[in-house]
Design a protein that fits this description.
Blueprint lengths: L5 H20 L9 H10 L6 H11 L14 H16 L11 H18 L14 H21 L23 H11 L36 H8 L8 H12 L12 H11 L10 H10 L15 H13 L29 H16 L6 H17 L14 H15 L5 H13 L14 H13 L6 H18 L9 E2 L3 E2 L2 H16 L13
Helix pairs in contact: 1-19, 2-3, 2-4, 2-8, 4-5, 4-6, 8-9, 10-12, 10-19, 12-13, 13-14, 13-15, 15-16, 15-17, 17-18, 17-19, 18-19
Length: 537
């Protein structure tokens, strides 16, 4: 199919420019509200405006089986967080009592939640632990707090729970060690500054963090986290740390009480959006936005946002964006993340990230192509990355990643990086990825791990159109057309399924919107669009 008519192309450009205008006007960023983080504010900051709305959010978001959050193991952390917060309110462990009208609903929610938790967290049950941020700290802290509340219930009468048999103590999931949590608490107790990446999950360390002088707080924000900031702040001190109070007030206003798990993340949001958009969608990026990213590049790279440590993932993406838009920076800051066979995302990292290494491969490849990087050192690093990504590929052809619940995200990152910078030896990896995408399309034309989603379908379409493969042209065309029909039918949706890893799952809404826009535009301007016939409703 030929290019779009000019009027439609201009509409696409306007959409991309409108997205950038939203980013400029919004210092907090477009991140979906978090059950885990909202429950922590119910527990830690009941004095904060929006408390009743946060409580209502928790009650409304509980699933029929008593859990909160995503499918499978992804429900463990948010369910523990919400259960602990509601229990604390009901047993009087917070300075603000639960609203009288809400107490019966809270009691019902607690009973159902404890039923689910008691089924999971019993001796001998191998409950899987999600690979979400700080799960090794958050889970033991919450299990201990819930058990403390259960002991209180066993010894004291709570009217709304009268006649109810209090369940026994929850057990720790296999492999979760409380020792690290105790070590970090001792670190704070003895006046030592905690590791920078821990600050995002500071609330897991408990009351010992309140007002701790060793905790950095940039403009009143601790670790880009409402929960961490509330834990450090404690009760709002009169005349002190007003910037922290104002941050919490502002972040809860965004969703009318509930809060996101991470905010603000200006460098992550802007760089990921610009990486997804093309010159056809945004013919010119405001220089001030590129200046913002350029200035963010330090000796160790770029963080996702203020208060977070720099990381190789955000650094590589920012470097790619700056190169793409004519402001290339040598990738010297990436070398400190290089290990024996791959790059770490953070220093002293627990588990490696597939997508981070794909982004680093892109950044190094673009630097070589622009003459910013040359020599055997660069060639060796690229060769190592290609080999490591190849060894990390699943037998089916896809990849999994620590920052995203869906294999379509990791597969798109890897397939596109390998197709552009992996050379001939990466061709078979790319072909296997394309075959996997083709073989997992759903009946409605979508793609998705649990259900078909616009975000995952956008990654799948970009993999098919941007990664050359030897799959039959007719099969590719048909898959892309069916996927495009799904995206067009769902493009007005803005409440995207949370798939990204933080302390629980979240959706970076503008990033997802940019990926969907890019996939639609790429399809409409490619030669592979033969619209699939719509099924009768």
């Amino acid at each position: 199919m030929s290019m779009l008519p000019g009027r439609q192309v201009d509409q696409r450009r306007g959409s991309g420019e409108a997205l950038l205008s939203e980013i400029v006007a919004d210092p907090l960023g477009g991140v979906s509200p978090s059950v885990y983080e909202t429950a922590r504010l119910v527990r830690l900051a009941p004095w904060l405006a929006g408390h009743r709305e946060r409580l209502r959010f928790l009650l409304d978001r509980q699933h029929p089986d008593g859990t909160w959050g995503g499918p499978g193991c992804y429900s463990l952390v948010p369910t523990l967080s919400a259960t602990e917060a509601l229990l604390a309110l009901l047993v009087g462990a917070t300075p603000v009592r639960a609203p009288a009208m809400a107490r019966p609903a809270m009691a019902s929610a607690i009973r159902r939640a404890l039923g689910a938790l008691s089924d999971w967290l019993v001796p001998g049950n191998h409950t899987p632990v999600p690979d979400t941020i700080a799960a090794e700290l958050v889970i033991p802290a919450l299990v201990a707090d819930v058990n403390g509340h259960l002991e209180h219930l066993a010894a004291h009468r709570v009217a709304e729970l009268s006649g109810w048999c209090v369940p026994g103590r929850l057990s720790m999931p296999p492999g979760v060690d409380e020792g690290v949590l105790h070590q970090l608490r001792d670190m704070i107790r003895h006046g030592r500054t905690p590791p920078a990446k821990l600050l995002h999950s500071l609330e897991a360390l408990g009351p010992i963090t309140r007002g701790a002088a060793v905790v950095p707080h940039e403009h009143g924000v601790v670790g880009c986290s409402p929960a961490a900031t509330a834990a450090w702040l404690g009760r709002p001190p009169a005349g002190r740390h007003q910037d922290s109070v104002e941050y919490l007030r502002a972040v809860q206003e965004r969703h009318g009480g509930p809060v996101p798990g991470v905010a603000p993340v200006p460098f992550f949001e802007l760089s990921w959006v610009l990486a997804a958009l093309t010159a056809d969608l945004v013919p010119m990026v405001p220089p001030a936005l590129l200046d913002r990213l350029y200035a963010a590049v330090g000796p160790d790279g770029v963080p996702a946002g203020p208060g977070l440590p720099p990381d190789a993932d955000d650094t590589a993406t920012v470097l790619c964006v700056l190169a793409q838009w004519g402001r290339p920076v040598p990738p010297d800051c990436l070398w400190s993340y290089r290990g024996n066979a791959h790059f770490s995302c953070f220093h002293a990292e627990r588990t490696p990230s597939i997508s981070t290494n794909a982004h680093v491969l892109q950044a190094l490849g673009m630097a070589v192509n622009r003459g910013l990087l040359q020599g055997r050192h660069a060639e060796n690093a690229i060769d190592e990355l290609v080999s490591w990504l190849g060894k990390s590929q699943q037998d089916e052809g896809n990849w999994w990643d620590k920052w995203h619940a869906s294999p379509y995200y990791a597969t798109a990152c890897c397939a596109l990086a390998l197709a552009r910078h992996g050379g001939e030896r990466a061709a078979r990896m790319v072909e296997q990825a394309v075959d996997w995408v083709l073989g997992t399309q759903r009946d409605d034309g979508s793609w998705g791990r649990w259900v078909g989603t616009p975000e995952e379908s956008a990654y799948a379409i970009q993999t098919l159109l941007r990664a050359p493969a030897s799959a039959p042209e007719k099969r590719l065309n048909h898959a892309v057309a069916r996927g495009y029909t799904f995206l067009e039918a769902t493009r007005a949706e803005h409440d995207h399924l949370p798939l990204w890893h933080d302390k629980d799952l979240y959706a970076p809404l503008r990033v997802v919107q940019a990926e969907v826009m890019a996939a639609i535009h790429l399809t409409r301007t490619s030669a592979r669009l033969t619209p699939a016939p719509r099924r009768p409703s």
